[in-house]
Every structure is written in C-alpha cells, then in structure tokens.
Amino acid sequence: MSEETTAAPPVRHWPALDLTGVDFDPVLSELMREGPINRIQLPNGEGWAWLVTRYEDVRLVTNDPRFSRAEVIGREVTRLAPHFIPQASAMNFVDKPDHSRLRRAVNTAFTTRGIERLRANAQKTLEGMVDEMLRDGPPADLIDRVLAPFPITVICELMGVPATDRHTLHTWTQAILSSSQGAKVSEQAKRDMEAYFAKLIAERRGATGEDVTSLLGAAVGRGDITEEEAMALAGPIQIGGEAVTNNTGQMLYVLLTRPALFDRLRDEPELRPGALDELLRYIPHRNAVGLSRIATEDVVLRGVRISKGDPIYVSYLAANRDPDVFPDPDRIDFERGTNPHLAFGHGPHYCVGGMLARMEQELIVNTLLDRIPTLRLSVSEDEVPWRRGALIRGPEALPVTW
Ligand code: HEM
Question: Which residues form the signal peptide (predicted)?
Fold first, then answer.
C-alpha cells in the first residue's frame, strides 16, 4: 500500500439538479476542479462517499477487487435515487468469481456474432418506423416515433420476449426507473418483471435458442446458475436495453442543435464511426453518479486513505473529460484519433449491452441522416422538454420537421 500523505477533503453536498440540454453538471465540474478525490453527499441515503473523477483513478477503482459491489447490499450509501431496491443476484451487485459465472451464462448473446444476428431485423424494424413517420408527415416526435419504440423492439427480440408482451415490459421498465411514481410502484413492477421472467425461463429449460431467456434456461438446465440467478440476470438486461433511448436522444439533440455537425455527418458518412464514439464520450448520460462500491480493505489513493468499509463512487462522465487523455475535452471533435472513452464503464461491470447499444445507434444515425437529410428541430432549442427527476438524462420529446 502506498503512503498516506494528504488529509481527506471536505464533504461536498451534491444536490439533485434538473439539468436540461447536454450541459455538463456544474457541481461535477467544481468537484473536478477541487481535486482528483472528493467526498460527496447526495440527496438520499446516509453519510458521505468518496468520489474519483480522473480517468486513471476511475479505471483503477472499477477494476480492483478491493472495491466490492456485493458489499453495497444492505447499506444505505448516500445516493441520487430516492429508493434503492438491489436484487441480490443481479449482475450489478455480484463480485468475481460469481460475477464472471453469471455473465458467462448470457455471453454469447452479446458477442459480435450475437449482436450481428439482430442487425438485419433491427434495420427492417427501423425502416418501418421511419416509413410510417414519413407517411404521416411533419412535425413528429422522434422519441415517440423511433427512439423509444426501436430499442424496446430490439431488446425484446434479444431477450426472446414475444411481441405481444413488449408493451407490458416497457411499462414495468419505466416504473422501475422512475422515481416519480414512488417506491411501491417500482417494487411491484420489479416483482412482476421477475415473475414474468421466472416463468419464461422455466419454459425454456434445455432450450437451444440464441435469445437471452433461452440461454438462461439452458444455463439453469446445466446447473451453471440457479433459477433465482437467471431471473435476476434477465431484469437488468431488459431494463438496460432502454438506456439507448435517452442516450441517442441526447446524441440527436446535439446534432440537431449544431447544424454544422449534422451536415458534416450527413455529407461525410466515413466520419460516422468515430463521431459516434466522440458523441458517446461527450454526452452526459446520467445525473450525478451510478452505483457505488465499498472498500474491503484500506487503500491509499493519490495519498488519501480510503478506509475499509468506506463507500466510493467513480464518475465515468468526469473521466471522459479528463484533459490528460482527451485534449480540449469540452470540444466535440469527430476526428479525435484514439478515443478510449468510458461511456460504457470499465472493468468487470463494463456494460453488457455496449456493443448492442453501439449497433442500434449506428443504425439510427445512418438511417435518419440518409433518409431525412433535411431533418431539423421543429421548436426552438429551449422548448425541447427534458426528463425531470431522472437518473438517466434525455429529452422527453424531440419535435422535428423536414
Ligand atoms: C448508450 C447506451 C448505454 C450506456 C451509455 C450504458 C452505460 C453503462 C455503464 C456506464 C455501465 C457500467 C456501470 C458500472 O460501473 O457498474 C453499464 C452496465 C450495464 N449495462 Fe449498460 N449502457 C447502455 C446500454 C445498455 C443496453 C442496451 C443494455 C442491455 C442490453 C445494458 C445493460 C447493462 C447491464 C446489465 C449492466 C450491468 C453490468 C454488470 O454489472 O456486470 N446497457 N451500462
């Protein structure tokens, strides 16, 4: 362990801000200016937690087994979310080696091959949604017509959820993610989703399909994971699938409010792969910070002692603006050479759906730019409504015309 040389910084209150647009959280900016390691108190939970914001520290903390996710269960760590209902066997709250075993059960659905298997159907679905929107004519809400329904369809297909149940799964997802409907509604939705997946997975025991519930059924059949673990794996994947809506909503907001960027991407398609990564780096995907970790022993980081039992957060958003890794980090630069952004996290808890999200975003951006080259906002920039009280940031509607 390296030596403790620096006193703990003061505890800073981080209020829940209802930020609009893609502005970087001013509290986070201030924390980053104050130093690489901070202590924060969020609106809910108890006490304070450490926060690291530098790229290298974020990679270290997220990849070091001395910081545990499993230990978070049962603790009232200071947090943004008003209610906190962790599912004990869900992959977000399990440490190695169990975590690797759980992810292995669904891994083949998320490999390049697993994702590419979905591409042709996804493209067809998307074309159908755009056809309908064009047929109905402008103005249209891009969230309602494309950015919400498309990821739901894709994630349900990946999960092996029948088309008739998609709406129900979407309703549960929204209730679980929303703080405005209260903890009871969220808890009920979580139980309903668990029961739904328990039944679907039980029916698929010994199945040979490539969808996630078939993979889970097969893994239970082989004894690799328990029924409870299978159910707890399905929920976060289903829910995570809808993260694409908000993230891509922010992406399109950036393009629609900066016509020079929109025009370049429309006219120079070869820039798009790099541009998507640059937008992923730049977009403030969430409010405040996500799930914490707990130190399982004393660790000295940049001369500051993190004591055993202390909660610690990382900010992937802050890491993505670290000037040591991304020169001129507040500028959107489609021609940044390498772009090792952490939009999908780092370490063992790296986003399961990263490649899927990237594929969906590629299809959405390509299809919209190629098919609707005159796409633009139909309201002024400040009239775009943003989600309030949300954990994940995004526009509630994107009114467009063409
Ligand atoms: C642009 C869209 C998305 C973004 C920006 C995003 C971001 C992230 C981040 C930063 C993490 C890691 C958090 C940590 O350190 O614990 C994560 C984890 C996760 N994501 Fe995503 N995600 C996206 C889309 C998706 C999709 C489409 C799915 C489902 C297919 C998904 C499912 C998950 C799951 C299940 C985890 C937990 C992984 C684990 O703990 O092992 N996400 N995501």
Answer: none
Mean pLDDT, the chain, rounded, equals: 95
* Residue 131 confidence (pLDDT): 98
CATH 1.10.630.10, domain 11-401, yes or no: yes
Nearest to 38 by CA among 60, 56, 53, 57: 53
Q: Dig out the tokens for 11 from the structure.
A: 């505890």
Q: What pLDDT score does 2 carry?
A: 67
Instruction: Report the pocket of ligand 1 as residue ranges, CB < 6 Å.
Output: 62, 91-92, 155, 236-237, 240-241, 243-244, 247, 285, 290-291, 316, 343-345, 349, 351-353, 356-357
Q: Which atom of ligand 1 is nearest to the CA of 314?
A: 15
pLDDT, tens digit, 9 for 90 and up, residues 359-394: 999 999 999 999 999 999 999 999 999 998 888 999
**Which ligand 1 atom is the nearest neighbour of the CA of 238?**
29
Residue-range domain boundaries for the chain:
11-401
Q: Show the 3-state SS of 295-328.
A: ECCCEEECCEEECCCCEEEECHHHHCCCCCCCCC
Structure tokens at 348: 């063992």
Mean local confidence (pLDDT), 228-244: 94
- Residue 176 half-sphere exposure toward CB, CA atoms < 13 A: 23
Residue 346 has pLDDT above 60, yes or no: yes
Closest CA to 80 of 16, 9, 131: 16
